[in-house]
Amino acid sequence: MFTGIIEYLATVKKISLKAGGAEIFLDIGDFGKDFKLGESIAINGVCLTVKEVKGTVAGFDVSSETLKKTTLGKLRNTEKVNIERALKVGDRLGGHFVTGHVDGIGIIKEKKQYADQCTMFFSVEKRFTDMMIEKGSVAIDGISLTIVDVVGGVFSVALIPYTLTLTTMGFKKVGDQVNIEIDMLGKWVKKILKKENDGDITWEQLTEQGF
User: pLDDT tens for residues 137-177?
Assistant: First the structure.
């Protein structure tokens, strides 16, 4: 389990595609000095297991299913990636509960730059936005962000300078792909209500369920 608060920007040293998946090697600098073999690390929001650490380089295996549903297979050498270690019991929860199980890929549709922040718009499958609400949470490349607006298959988030500086969002441009993980609460609400009614979710149904 993660929180969506990025701790470090690692650099891709090597990615090797192979039958059934891939291997990714990251330069994690001093951040990985106490990494343990077998521990879970979120890389651009994807939960992977540390399989080896040599100096400042950590290695991870990636399954074929993960390559299909995430952007990891498209990474290139020297590219930066967001890193977060798994949540410890008793840690502060600064973002929201993030599982590291990416639902799918979104595309940056538009960027609007303002004096003190940037608003980004993302195009995704409508089944994803059906589980989103304004002011709700979403993980984009592992970053816990608050949704500003949802219209059709597009949603937007506001990014402050801190986030743009310390995560990969500062490097992203229109047309780039990102990993999307829907907030768990949205998934459970939709599943519960779908059992009762295969139609659209209404505010009345949410109220009846205690939301």
Answer: 999 999 999 999 999 999 999 999 999 999 999 999 999 99
Identify whether 121 is part of a domain.
yes
- Residue pointed to by tokens 């100096």: 55
pTM: 0.87
Query: What digits encode the pLDDT tens for the residues 171-201?
Result: 999 999 999 999 877 666 666 666 555 556 5
What sections of the chain are H helices per DSSP?
64-69, 126-129, 161-166, 184-196, 203-208
- Amino acid in the structure at residue 55: G
Do both 71 and 115 map to the same domain? no
Q: Any idea what the CATH number is for the domain that residue 63 is in? A: 2.40.30.20
119 plus 59 within the same structural domain: no
Does residue 181 fall inside a structural domain?
yes
Which of 21, 15, 25, 12 shows the shortest CA–CA distance to 62? Answer: 21
Dihedral (CA of 95, 98, 100, 101) sign: negative
